[in-house]
């Protein structure tokens, strides 16, 4: 086995760590001083790069520490399954790396939710299924729902991670198969980077197979729905507290927003209708002018098609947009027979 | 039988040393980069409504096209992927071809926009932008280019108002949402979208991005950044990389009601091809899409697989249907050098042949 400390002229692990420390140092310093890092988006990109590179370094270290001696044709299969199917397998890491995003990864959500409600739940775990009674029964039931939702979320999370682990094992198998195809001289993998790229291809292929399976679809849906139930139950608790302190709640704001949106839609519809009516009036006027051979004895009413759902609004618009007509004449409002001008 | 691994320890060490050198050389160039921006082509805002802005682009010469082209992008990212930088700009290349280009920037919805429905987006915002462009040019009908989700919106609009569109171009647009290789659709199928939207209000952009990253978890969360090391000593390439990163993660939240309807009707119900989508109480019948249609899809698209885009030909009413297959992915179709060479020219030639 080739070990890092046996390499003449250097120490892989030390160099890798130096590079890594340099990168991290720059990240920390640059976050406050560098011109790029002052831009939020660039800083975010750098954070992501950091997370991605960290995983890469970990993998390189693992590869180096246990790499079989190439010349002797050592036990590469055993070594490979140890590195690629171990606890640091790709998907757990990739998913964990992104779970710090607000509202994003499932792990972050679970941790956040548990932290927020822990004080409420501590005394309730043993009574989770007890029916509630009396004045405080609704409050107790709400807390029980939240506890149930959190428990359910943990189960769904475990099922989901089991599928990710399956994808990891499958990735190792795929990598082994790809490597086996390169056992002849001229096709062998001769660099860490080439091995890494091969591993990524195998990992993505394996993940795709698992992620398109019916089990994944069900587990994914169940996980999202479990998160949603925790979020809803947490919100219900929060709203109770907010109301007690006289604070506006999210649902109240949502209701206001919904009503305002409906009013805007109604106003817009009325405006559009008024436009249509004005256009029709103009058309009628133009028609009258072009066909007027003699003064008319009576003014024909404009003919408008009245949308069934907006009858009341149409009348209102007509009143608003009609030119000053003076006092209503006797008989106004009664429909006159249409007249032909020619 | 040989071992497939022939990694010389000294060579491996050299790899690490090369990496260290690249990192050391690249850090100063990272520090020297300014804030990255996109939206390279000169433009003028010609219409605003709520958070939406309709832009009209200014080319170096007057457009030769008789009918303007309006671009309707998806809601899930900003539309600047079409004009990322001067040498990676679908918009700039279309202007060079002589097209007269407009673009809708939908803006960043906040909680005040939580109740916007698909009707508000399609009949409202998109429809009014189309009317504005028609009025500016004194035309009864204009050309519409819909991209991804914006393509689905464009199809709905085209079915509801065929008389207002002279030609329709759809780019990487999902039409059949239930093909077996559509991972996004697969994942949404058992989600309780009502509860999801009710609890979140608007759907956070970070959550959407998390979902997209996990479509290719190792490649997008790790390998991409390993690849960054290869270009760290090239400031121009690093700037391009950061610009793309900014575009990917600088994305809008999704208005809750529109998201609810889009997931339920399109992703879960696959109603677009069934003729069951309703916008503002009116049924969207793709058979009413009677204008010429150019459908462009990307062969390596992991978000909208070709199998999701190509069925359009079986469901629309037009007799003038053209398909263009692009060798690339969902993003490469706008920014790759191949895209710059192939796509705008193909769009222009297709429009020109139809009086556009």
What does this structure look like?
The complex is a heterodimer of chains A (342) and B (356). Chain A is 68% helix and 0% strand. Chain A is built from ten helices and no strands. Residues 1-10, 26-42, 97-106 and 305-342 of chain A have low confidence and may be disordered. Chain A has helices at 12-33, 40-66, 76-84, 90-98, 106-121, 137-180, 192-211, 214-244, 250-291, 311-321. Chain A folds into three domains: 1-67; 71-247; 255-290. Chain A has 342 residues and is mainly α. Chain A starts with 11 loop residues before the first helix and ends in a 21-residue tail after the last helix. Chain B is α/β, with parallel strands linked by helices and 356 residues long. Chain B has one domain: 3-Layer(aba) Sandwich (Rossmann fold), CATH 3.40.50. In chain B, the strands form three sheets. In chain B, strands 1-2-6-3-7-8-11-12 form an eight-stranded mixed β-sheet, sandwiched between helices. Chain B has a two-stranded antiparallel ribbon with strand order 4-5. A two-stranded antiparallel sheet of chain B has the order 9-10. The longest helix of chain B has 24 residues, at 9-32. Chain B starts with 8 loop residues before the first helix and ends with a helix. At the A-B interface, helix 1, helix 2, helix 4, helix 7 and helix 8 of A face helix 1, helix 5, helix 6, helix 7 and helix 8 of B.
